[in-house]
Design brief:
Order of helices and strands: HHHHH
Number of helices: 5
CATH superfamily: nmb1532 protein domain like
Number of strands: 0
Number of domains: 1
Low-confidence stretches: none
Structural class: mainly alpha
Radius of gyration: 18 Å
Amino acid sequence: MSGESVFEELRKDHEVVLAGVRAVVEKVERVEQGGPKPTPEALAVCQKSVRALRRAFTVHRCREEVGLFPEVEQLVSQGAPSVDILGSFFAGEAEDDIVAHVGIAEGLQQIDRVLEQLLRRDEPESDLGEAARGLADLITRHAAKEDTEIFPMMVRVVTREQLADVAERIAELCDMETERVK
């Protein structure tokens, strides 16, 4: 992962998770509109997809929370150019991003639990469609904020060389996480 590709990789992560959740929403909405009830095999396939999304999101979260945010914050504290631009981000926006990450992880886990309950033919603890639509909305808002506000702000503040160093550090920190969740 090179300097500016750090942000491109994170944007791709957003797209992958959002596309997966939207696919779940589409399937659920077909059933809600009177389509055929999903078979146990279809539920199992959906659950496998959701679990793959959970793994992908865990890696994405590591890249941001363990790699990108601390590395950029350190650069800012050392006097990166235009430090004032990122001051508000690290004064509260970063925490909002982390809260959104927790919500996304919990939403994926909730969908996984509901699918598990449906596979066991138990009464689900919550509505799958509502959970999937809520998660899609949260991911959409979160990704839009990072992709259009936060990442461009970081690109303006951090030099190419610093971004390359950040990319290297993210790879070092998150390679173990990537292997762990496979």
